Amino acid sequence: MRKILSQEEIDAVFERTSPGISQEPDDQIAAFDLKHLDRIPKSQLRDLHLVHENFVRSLASSLSAYLRSYVALNLVSLEQISYSEFLDGLSFPTCIAYLGLNPYEGTAVLELNMTLMFAFLELLMGSKGRASVLANRKITDIEKSIMQTLLRVVLQDLHEAWKSVAKIDFSVQSLASEPQLMHVMAPAEAVIVIAVDVHIGSVSGLMNLAIPSIFIKRLRHNFDQLQQVRRSHGNEFDQARLAEVMLDVDLNFEAVLDGGRIATQTLLNLKPGDVLMLDHSMEQNLEATLNGERKWSGGIVAKRDKMVFEVENAAKPRNH
């Protein structure tokens, strides 16, 4: 006969602790932070750092030429934070530009603090760039229009620096003074923030560039290719460093005249005034060696009261 359990008996079964199951918290369970879904690996961060180091060096030269005043830039930091943390770290008011990332989707943010922005404005208007204007007000529409010209220079160098990864057309979508009013990204969305210290004479300030992490993750394959190229060719800094080290290396350069063979006794019997006939034609080039390895062919010519070797072409490899 089948027994039917009452509701009280069913509740008692579920409330009863099973002897094989521990009620202690499992140490293997870890909290999952949904805010950090767009975190990118450290190897990709290193590549980003190199890209923006090139950007900073190029922009320092471009701004100095454009503003006709010495501008020094220094890459201060590159870190991953949430967009809300980025906004909380900005001063108010500020100058903030929202950038398109054509042909890709998404929006980046470029911020200049007011002291730095007014120094730029004064230089663009023919002043000395001492930022005499108090940096405690919003920028006007006229000032926004003037800043657009400067931002074109900045974005052009940013475009060139990113060419090694992908061709991105950075363009200004809008300028604002209150970043909290523009909801271009969700507060929890992860961004890569590149902080650049800018010095113009006695004036200094920060320029911050925030790029969505999800945008950078979409280019992961491009960064992988960049790492392969860098491993095979090396970056500009490594090449410059190697060239600097090689400046102090001694090399043995020789111009070789292949004149055939003579007997040892003939060589020993040579006296001053004797003429030794060689099998080398006057029209035939000499071979130049570097540390014993054939490198060039050319001839001996006179220049400024000295005999010099004139390179005509690279030496052909010998047939072994």
Question: What brief labels describe this structure?
Answer:
320 residues; alpha+beta; Chemotaxis protein chec; 4-stranded antiparallel sheet
Describe it.
- The chain is built from nine helices and ten strands.
- A hairpin with a 2-residue loop joins β9 and β10.
- The termini are far apart.
- The strands form two sheets. Strands 1-5-6-3-2-4 form a six-stranded antiparallel β-sheet. Strands 7-8-9-10 form a four-stranded antiparallel β-sheet, with no helix packed on it.
- With 320 residues, it is an alpha+beta fold.
- The protein is elongated.
- The model has no long low-confidence stretch (mean pLDDT 80).
- It folds into two domains: 37-241, Chemotaxis protein chec, CATH 3.40.1550.10; 250-260 and 280-314, no CATH class.
- It has helices spanning 7-15, 42-67, 83-88, 114-124, 141-162, 213-218, 220-233, 236-246, 264-268; strands at residues 71-82, 95-102, 107-112, 169-176, 190-200, 203-212, 253-256, 286-290, 293-303, 306-314.
Structural topology:
Blueprint: H1 7-15, H2 42-67, E1 71-82, H3 83-88, E2 95-102, E3 107-112, H4 114-124, H5 141-162, E4 169-176, E5 190-200, E6 203-212, H6 213-218, H7 220-233, H8 236-246, E7 253-256, H9 264-268, E8 286-290, E9 293-303, E10 306-314
Antiparallel strand pairs: 1-5, 2-3, 2-4, 3-6, 5-6, 7-8, 8-9, 9-10
